[in-house]
Amino acid sequence: MITPEPRELPHLVQDLHQRNRPWLPAGLASRLDWGPPVARPHTVLSCARLNRILEHNPGDFTITVEAGTPLVAVQQALQPHGQWLPLDWPWGSGPAGEGSGSIGGLVARGQAGGYRQRYLGVRDQMIGIHLLRSDGVAARAGGKVVKNVAGYDLMRLLCGSWGSLALITAVTLRTQPIPPHRQGLRLQGPTAALAAFSRWLLGSSLSPERIDWQRLGAAGSGAGPGADTLLISLASISAQTLQEQIACIEEKAGAAPGAAAGADSGSLLVHRLAADELAAAEAPSPGAGPGAGSDAAAGAAWLLRLGVRPERVPDLLTTPALAGLELVLGAGSGLGHAWGSAAVPVHRVEALRRHCREAGGMVTVLRQPGGSSIPAWLDAPSRPLIEAVKRQFDPKQQLARGRLPGVEPPGVAEPPPAG
Ligand SMILES: Cc1cc2nc3c(=O)[nH]c(=O)nc-3n(C[C@H](O)[C@H](O)[C@H](O)COP(=O)(O)OP(=O)(O)OC[C@H]3O[C@@H](n4cnc5c(N)ncnc54)[C@H](O)[C@@H]3O)c2cc1C
């Protein structure tokens, strides 16, 4: 892996271009190998030394950071100003965001967690981007002020590009004020009753920050291994508003905190969570803790990014294809992660993929056990367009060769159906 100084980067990329060398953009390399394998040999070019906060305008609620800056460092820099980036710690990070990787990696993967429900995803929070094209020429889109939308499409294109189009060198993002009051509620009960409750809550005038389905293992939610729970996060600038929302939810659940009841929503148990308990509950993943990241996630041989249309989430929760997998899924977005040990058979993951596709969604295989090689993703209907964009950005096909989102990775095509 090469970790150049910022001033060395353009020359280095130009040199790779002239020599037709395949290469892979990298941030802090915390999750570099997750997803389809990249054709070897290739040079890995890390942005770890692009780690400065270039500009923070608290009054304008914008921040410009170099791509290799750790997400946790950006949050720490914003915190004294009462601001934050409303982004989840990536799956496998520790409880305080250690192992969460770089801002560039976050943008390149383009994934989001439960905060997407209120704050949208990272692509919607970006207002500017700087990049190096595959020929080493610097380019930029957007700007540093929220109303500047020039180049909007280029930013969205790079978001979720998995390093296949260009090297992101810096991004400008919107910041948000940190809500001073935050509290959580965990609801337990039969899945059907929780689904009815979730439908009501999503359609109500209440405004939770997020509503996450969780199905966790033994040490997970305290609801018993494999039991479904709903984690509701509430945040407000007003303590009174927060308490009113909590009271309304508890009343609807038909229960005082910790007690069972609930005429119209089944027997739901409600537990209140203080802000620190909520923060820990919002980011479950195996081995989360100091030194987390891909090492800590080693216990999960399978790691799947999955999604269905939000109204199909209750169906998804009842599919036998989820057996043996733990799960976190946004009730409002239908997007989440599932993970499990190597004991989960390949055919079950394939059945889950079929189920999600029929429900208007997808499964991306981020990790899989040694010996199994199901495609990380399948062809998108827009494959020809995606390949045309790739040819424009990277005519020599140098970047992340073999890993182009929406194009089924070569060499692992599914066999044609029998008969
Ligand atoms: C809720 C949530 C869950 C997530 N879960 C996962 C997950 O399960 N698996 C996962 O892989 N990611 C996940 N992500 C994305 C995650 O944020 C990134 O994988 C992580 O930030 C990687 O950071 P890194 O610096 O270590 O990147 P790396 O591991 O170095 O690279 C990750 C990817 O980004 C590309 N990349 C990195 N930096 C740049 C750059 N400057 N320019 C262009 N491309 C670049 C690389 O080519 C590679 O494809 C999740 C994000 C969220 C918000």
Word description of this protein:
The protein has a 9-stranded antiparallel sheet with strand order 13-14-10-12-11-16-17-15-18. It is globular. The N and C termini lie far apart (47 Å). The chain contains 12 helices and 18 strands. The protein has 419 residues and is α+β, with helices and mostly antiparallel strands. It has 3 domains: 6-177, 2-Layer Sandwich (Uridine Diphospho-n-acetylenolpyruvylglucosamine Reductase, domain 3), CATH 3.30.465.10; 181-282, 2-Layer Sandwich (Alpha-Beta Plaits); 298-367, Alpha-Beta Plaits (2-Layer Sandwich), CATH 3.30.70.250. Helix content is 25%, strand content 23%. It binds flavin-adenine dinucleotide (FAD). Flavin-adenine dinucleotide (FAD) is lined by residues 24-32, 34, 47, 67, 87-88, 90-91, 101-102, 104-106, 108-109, 111-113, 162-163, 167-168, 303, 337, 366, 400.
Can you summarize this structure?
The chain has 419 residues and is α+β, with helices and mostly antiparallel strands.
What spatial form do the alpha-carbon principal axes imply?
globular
Structural class: alpha+beta
Q: How many structural domains does the protein architecture include?
A: 3
- The low-pLDDT segments are 261-265, 287-296, 412-419
Number of strands: 18
> What bound compounds does this protein have?
flavin-adenine dinucleotide
Strand fraction band? 15-25%
User: What do we call the CATH topology of the largest domain?
Assistant: Uridine Diphospho-n-acetylenolpyruvylglucosamine Reductase, domain 3
Number of helices: 12
CATH architecture of the largest domain: 2-Layer Sandwich
Q: Identify the CATH class of the largest domain.
A: Alpha Beta
Radius of gyration: 22 Å
Mean pLDDT equals 89
Numbering strands along the chain, what is their spatial order in the largest sheet?
A: 13-14-10-12-11-16-17-15-18
Helix content: 25-40%
Euclidean distance between termini CA atoms: 47 Å
Listing every helix as H and every strand as E from the N terminus to the C terminus, the arrangement reads HEEEEHEHHHEEHEEEHEEHEEHEHEEHEH
Task: Summarize the biggest pleated sheet.
Answer: 9 strands, antiparallel
